[in-house]
Queue: 2 jobs
Job 1
Amino acid sequence: MQFRLSLLGALTLVAPDGSIATPRMAKTQALLAFLALADGRAVNRAALQDLLWSDRGQKQGRDSLRKALAELRLCLSAVEPNPLETTGGPVRLRPEAFDIDLFSQGARCGVESGLYQPAFLEGIDIPDDEFNRWLCRIRLELDAQGMSRTTPVRQVSSTPCTLLPARPLFEVGILPVDSAAGDGLADRIANLLLNDLITLFDQSSLIVPYDFRHMAGAPPGIGPDVMLSLQVSGLGDTFILAARASHVGSARVLWSAVDHVARADLGQEWVNGWTAATFDKLIERLAAFDGFDAAEHHAARMVVSAVDRIFRLTPGELGEAGRLLDEACDLVEASTVFGWNAFLTAFRAEKEGRERNHEMLERAEWCAARATELDRHNPLTVALVAHVYSFVLRDLDRAAEILAPVRDASSRSPFLADTLSMLHFYLGDYKLAHRFAREAVNTGRFSPFRFSFTTSLAMSELMLGQTEDAARHCKAALAQHRVRNGHLYEPTLRTLAAAAGHAGLRDEGRAALDILGRQGGYDPLERLKSGDTPYPNPDVLKVVRQGMERLNVQ
C-alpha cells in the first residue's frame, strides 16, 4: 500500500484507498516535499526549522514545526506503521510508502516527448527567504537535468539536505604554530598538542575543527566562529606555552592561558592532561560567550548546559539536564548527544531505582542504540553507551564488545578510561580496573567529572584490600564536588562507608551512611539486598555490605 505523491504541479497526496490526503497548510506541504526528496534519509529538526521558519525565534520555530509534523502525521495515518518517523529527534519518511511522480518513468517520458511539464511545487507561496532559495535551486537543477534525460531524477534528492546545516556546532580554526625561528622541538611539541586537541574537538560532536596550519589563511567561504593560536618557546629547561582563542567577528578573547612545563616532565601523560584540560576550558567558554546568537549554536549550548547539570547531582538539575538533552536530540543528529542522553537516562533510572523505572531504561537503551548507529568509533560515544549497557542494563559482554575497538584511546579520553575501569571492576579484574582508574584520574584532573574518576579509583582499592587508600580517595572525591551542590555522589558515599567500615574508621563511615540515607530517602543496607542493588558483581556487593555492617548501622 502506497501513497501517491505529486510534486510536479500543485502538491497532491492521494491515500492508498484513493482519497485525497493533501495537507491543508502550505508549510506542511513544503515539509512533505523536502522529506520526500531526502529519499529516506533522516533530517535534523534544526534544518527543517531553518528551511521553513528562518524568521522565527527558536521556541516559536520549534512549536511551528511540531504543529506541521502533527498535521503531516495525521495525513499519513491511513498506513500503519505511519510512514513519518519522528521518534527521538530527526525526521524521515519511509520511501517505500510513496509512489512519487518526480521519480517515475512517466515524468521522464513527459519531458522527452516535449509535452508541457508543470513546475516543481507550482503555486506554492511561502514568505520565507530560505525556503524560496531552496525552491529556486531545485527548479533550476530539474531544468538543467532536463528531468533526467541522462541521469536519474532521484539524484536531486541529495540537494536539499546539503543546503542547510547538518549539525549545530561551534567552529574553531587552528592557526599556524607560532614558535621561535629554528626551534624545531618547540614546533613539534606545539603540533603534537594541536593534533590531539583537534581529535578531541572532532570526537565531542560539539566543535568542528578547521586546520589552517599549512595555509596562509582561511579559504573563501570558510569562516570559523573562533580562531585558536598556540605559541611555544623554550627557556632553559622549561617550555612556555601560550594559548589564545579569539572570536572572529569581534576580536574578543574568549580564553587564554600560559603554561610552563619542564623538559623532564614533557611526556605523553602531560600532553594528554594538557589537551583534556584545554578542551574542557574552551568548551565552557564557547558555551558562555554572548557573541554567538546563530541558530546553529543552540543545540550545542543545550548539550554543554545539560552536561554541566549532570554533575550537580540533584534531582532537579538531573531533570533539567534530561529536558535539555531531549530538546537537543530533536535538533541535532550527533552520536555524543544521543550518548549523553542515554547516559543520563540510565543514571537517573539507577539512582531512582531500576525496578521502578522500566520505561526509563527502555529509553536509555534506545538512545544508546541510536548513538552507536551514528558513530560506533567515537571514544566518547562508546564510553557513554558502554556505561549504559554494563552498569545499568547489566550486559557486561555487550559492553566489552563495544569497548574493544577503542580501548587504546583511553590515555586521551578520561571518560573512556573510567568506563574501562568500571567494566573490569565488575568483571572482577581489580588490578586492571585500578590501572584504568588511575589513567582517568591523571588525564581528567581538570574535568568536572573528576570526582567520578577518583571514586572509581577508590572502588578498585577497596576490592584490592587497600581500604585506607580507598577511604582517603573517597574523601578527595567529595572535596572535588561543587560546593554549592548540597548533593553528593552516591557511589562515593557507599564506597567511603564500606572502606571506613573495613579500615576501622567508624565515625567517618557512619557519617557517610547517614548522608546517603538522608539524601536518597532509603536505607542503604536494604537497598543492597533488593533488586535495585547498584552492584552487578556479587563479590563487590559482599565486600560493600560487610563494610557497612561493621559500622553497626542497621
Note: The chain has three domains: 3-162, 170-288, 413-554.
Job 2
Amino acid sequence: MAGAAGARGARSFWSIWYKTEIIPIYLTVGGAVGLAGWYLTRLARGHEIVWDRKNNPYPFRNVEQGTQIKLMTVNQKFDKVYSRDRL
C-alpha cells in the first residue's frame, strides 16, 4: 500500500508542477534571474568599484583613454573594451 501511495503522490506532484501553461512563467523567471545575476556581476566588476583599498585604492586610474567603459555606446568608436584584470 505504501508504494502505491508514494507513486500516486509523486504522480500528482509532477502533474501539478509540470503543466504546459506554467512553462513560459518558468522560462521568464529563469531568464530574469540569469540576467539580473549577469548585471550584478557586471556592476561589481566596474571601474569605479573599490574592492581592495590597500593594493588598488583607485582602480579608475588604470583606465586608459580610448577604452569603452559603458554598457552601450552609440556612434562612438573605441580601440578596446574595459576589462578588470585585478580586483
Note: The chain has one domain: 2-81.
